[in-house]
Amino acid sequence: MRDNQIYLNPSEMPTKYYNIVPDLPTPLAMPLNPATKQPVSPDDLAPLFPEELIMQEVSQERFIDIPEEVLELYSLSRPTAMHRAFRLEKALGTPAKIFFKYEGSNPAGSHKTNTAIAQAYYNKRAGIKKIVTETGAGQWGSALSIATQHFGIDLEVYMVKVSYDQKPYRRTLMQLHDAKVYASPSNRTNSGRQILEKDPNSPGSLGVAISEAVEIAANNKDTNYALGSVLNHVMLHQSIIGEEARLQLDKVNEYPDIIVASAGGGSNFAGIASPFLRDKLSGAKKDLKVVAVEPSSCPTLTKGKFAYDFGDTVGFTPLLKMFTLGHTFIPPAIHAGGLRYHGMSPIVSNLYENKVIEAVNYHQIEVFDAAKLFLTTEGILPAPESAHAIKGAIEQAKLCTERNEAKTILFNLSGHGFLDLGSYGSYIDNKLEDYKLPDEVIMRYFADLPIVD
Ligand SMILES: *Cc1c(COP(=O)(O)O)cnc(C)c1O
After folding, report:
1. Cβ-count burial of 254 within 10 angstroms (0-12 exposed, 13-18 middle, 19+ buried)?
2. CATH number of the 113-227 domain
3. Separation between Cα atoms, residue 385 and residue 371, nearest integer Å
4. What is the DSSP code (8-state) at residue 415?
5. Which atom of ligand 1 is nearest to the CA of 238?
6. Cis peptide before 185, with omega less than 30 degrees from 0?
């Protein structure tokens, strides 16, 4: 048998997160207070996050210890396996070697558990009794519900209404972990009521759900807010993926020439890539190519603007300097719900602005075609979000074929697709649509960007 899987024992799990911030080519722009447009102080964030997470958010330390209790919970599913996709390579007839890291074996089925566990732990240590959050199709909410249930913290989730109605399975998973789940926009917050007044049948969006959750956390002392992507501390927690991947590839004497991951808010991308980008930024691996893949209908890096913008629709959150399509942009209803966000992590945005990384976008039908090829060769049904990374890796492998180059490609399979079979049903029934997003339409939303001088 060929060794197509590379494992680490739980005792070999990395014990430190890697923080890429001190190694970025230019300093990270400070978040701004939305009212004063002055840099936010740690005090501004205190109503929403525990002190230890705020310290991580602004940390310049390169390595940060992973607490023992967090490592212990990680060991339920970590270290995750690294696979060599021999059968996919053969189907493509490529000289490239394709490796992937499989995060779908985590509880709730994606990488999001990595930060959920850490965030719940630090909130518990700060004496927080309740966390409020938003979720789109439910990946983040279900990951967090596992962590809060473990640490004995109450969880309230504002779930985007279309998903609440049409994708009930992750809602059930959250409820099994004792979370309270509400369809957003709801009449429980001023933000929700404001939206419902304008449009009683509003399908909701991630930006609106964030406004609802932040509003509640800001107004209740023992209640905090948690975000599943975008922020620096989330990128930090996800570095466990890439740190493990380095050790696994070391075992077979490999180092990637090309790394590919999907990018919604940027966390699974930063998670797999940053421990390798450390070598590129130090000059040791100058030629490392790192590609973020996004949907053509929500092309934040490839078509967005690098500007200060809100993280939510209503405008409560600090202003972040990031690639954005504008906080009023509501992406078309593609099936990769986890990639439908108007902004991008400031860390990933900084790397893209400095041309350390590249980005591409693909339409959803070609992405589902890639998912099908992957399923039928490698035997794993990918989440539609993760299928963007598969599509990206396949395109890189085809380039290797054309140039007859035996490069090593590593991609992140961020989650499994067993709760997305409804979407796959639409795919085989030819009901998927590729949404065209003309530049004029995108330009219109740029007009709503806040003015910062
Ligand atoms: C949420 C999600 C994503 C996108 O979020 P990032 O923060 O960009 O990683 C990608 N894949 C899966 C499976 C997800 O659940």
Report:
1. middle
2. 3.40.50.1100
3. 10
4. B
5. 9
6. yes
**Max CA distance (Å), the chain:** 63
CA 222, CA 264: separation in Å to the nearest integer? 30
For ligand 1, atom 1, which residue shows the shortest CA distance?
338
Residues with Cβ within 8 Å of 97's Cβ and at least 6 positions away in sequence, in order, are: 84, 89, 254, 406, 407, 408, 409
What gap in Å lies between CA 360 and CA 24, rounded to an integer?
21
Which of 267, 335, 341, 419 to mutate for ligand 1's pocket (most ligand atoms within 8 Å of CB)?
267
Q: Which of 339, 341, 388, 420 to mutate to test the pocket of ligand 1 (most atoms within 8 A of CB)?
A: 339
Reported as a single tens digit per residue, the pLDDT across 342-368 is: 999 999 999 999 999 999 999 999 999
Please tell me what DSSP assigns to residue 105: G
With pLDDT > 90 as the criterion, what percentage of the chain qualifies?
89
What is the atom index within ligand 1 of the atom nearest the CA of 268?
Answer: 9
Between CA 369 and CA 371 the distance in angstroms is 5
pTM of the predicted model as reported, rounded to 2 decimal places = 0.97
Q: Mutation test of ligand 1: which of 110, 231, 238, 411 has the most ligand atoms closer than 8 Å to its C-beta?
A: 110
Every domain of the chain with CATH number 3.40.50.1100 lies at: 5-13+66-109+231-446, 113-227
Q: Is the dihedral of CA 292, 298, 303, 305 positive or negative?
A: negative
Which of ligand 1's atoms lies nearest the C-alpha of 266?
Answer: 8
* CATH architecture for the domain at 5-13+66-109+231-446: 3-Layer(aba) Sandwich (3.40)
Between β-strands 358-362 and 16-18, what pairing exists: parallel, antiparallel or unpaired? unpaired
Tokens 């004063």 identify what position? 36
Tell me the average pLDDT across 412-418: 98
The band of 220, judged by pLDDT with boundaries at 50, 70 and 90, is very high
Residue 234 CA: nearest ligand 1 atom is 7
Whole-angstrom distance, CA of residue 192 vs CA of residue 216: 11
